[in-house]
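User: Could you check the structure of this?
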Amino acid sequence: MGTSWAFLVAVALVVAWLLSGRLFHYSDTWQLVINTATTIVTFLMVFLIQNTQNRDARAIHLKLDEIIRSHHGAHNEMIDIEDLSDEELAEISKRYEKIRKEYDQRTKSTLHQAKKELKKKAS
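Assistant: Sure, the predicted structure tokens are below.
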């Protein structure tokens, strides 16, 4: 649907509708045809786009699961994490936030120590 050919077909249909306006004297029915057609197409496209996004998300999750499985140091509990409840996800999020803060503190401490050593060497 997202190809240049689909776009050209859509443009051709709109041009055909515009040109048919003279034939139908630009009546309310003539306008209703394009309004109804665009509403139906929009309605159907919502489902098509949602389906495409769901398939894409499922493929990404499978790829990430494979990466987690293949990495020896990875936490296998993260596989299929998308199936957890909101509460379980919040708990895991808090755990990783704590890990990040601890890492930030160690990094800041290490950087502070390295700066002190550089100043001593420079003096």
